[in-house]
Structures are given as C-alpha cells and as structure tokens.
C-alpha cells in the first residue's frame, strides 16, 4: 500500500494561501535556481520575499499571481506574515 505521507511543498500548496499576502486565489509557485542566488554579495537590501526564502532555506514560495508579478517586476511586496 502506498504511503499517504506528502512532502512539504504539497502541504504548502494544499493550504491554498499566498505565503506573502495571504490571498487565497490564483496561486503560483516562485522558484529560484539555487539558495546561493539569495545571498549574492553586492546586492542592495533584500526584499521581504528573499528574506522569507532564505529564512526557510527553501527555493520555492507559494504565492498569488499579483505577488509573483511584483517579484519579477522588481516591485516591493507586502511584508511576510509572522
């Protein structure tokens, strides 16, 4: 019989909540190539989403479409929830 255990990403997707602004619609996954990309020297202050990814030591964030577009456009996003 197959195990019913699921990995962390599946649990985060099933929560159906943006990890930045807590929206519940149009969820997507933002992915960085490697964690070292989050800590490159010579960068200005890190945006809130980078802090969240580095703190969790995860290469993915489950976020809403609006936050995803803001990240790729270089705009600020809402501060992450605590």
TrEMBL record:
Domain of life (superkingdom): Bacteria
Keyword presence, Transferase: yes
Alphabetical list of InterPro entries matching this protein: AI2M-like_HNH (IPR049030)
AI2M/AI1M-like HNH endonuclease domain boundaries: 18-68
Keyword set, alphabetical order: Nucleotidyltransferase, RNA-directed DNA polymerase, Transferase
Single GO molecular function: RNA-directed DNA polymerase activity
Protein name: RNA-directed DNA polymerase
Organism: Streptomyces agglomeratus
Organism placement in taxonomy: Bacteria, Bacillati, Actinomycetota, Actinomycetes, Kitasatosporales
């Amino acid at each position: 019989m197959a195990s019913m255990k699921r990995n962390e990403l599946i649990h985060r997707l099933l929560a159906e909540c943006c990890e930045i602004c807590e929206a519940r619609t149009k969820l997507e996954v933002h992915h960085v190539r490697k964690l070292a990309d989050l800590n490159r020297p010579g960068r200005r202050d890190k945006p809130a989403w980078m802090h969240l990814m580095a703190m969790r030591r995860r290469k993915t964030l489950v976020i809403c479409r609006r936050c995803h577009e803001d990240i790729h456009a270089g705009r600020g996003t809402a501060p992450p929830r605590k």
